[in-house]
Amino acid sequence: MASGMLALGLIFSQEASNSLDPIEAVIYVRFFSLLGIASLLFFMKSKITLTKKAVPILFFQGILETTGYFCLVSAYAFDKVSIAVVISSGFGLVTVLLARLVLKEKISKIQTLGISLTFIGVVGLTI
Length: 127
Fold this sequence. Notes:
The protein is mostly helical.
């Protein structure tokens, strides 16, 4: 489900970059992402509890993700779509690496192999 939402966000970003300024496109993507998540939480009647420790981490993650979307939409605006899409496929890779470094999560051997192959593939496609 998350990958489907990401794909919709990327499609919207690409289409929005044709008629909007990159900053406006990112604002719309972030707004509708937030609206979608809030709707899901409302209808699922999920209760979220935030700790004081989680708030700065979530804030920092939001800044990083928004910056990533801004860079992606800017690349769309400069007709570098082929490069931007390949580089954007590294979102998952960066997420896993940050989970390992920041949250100290364990990464299995098969996951390490997958991360390595993804990294090699992204580098190979961008050269």
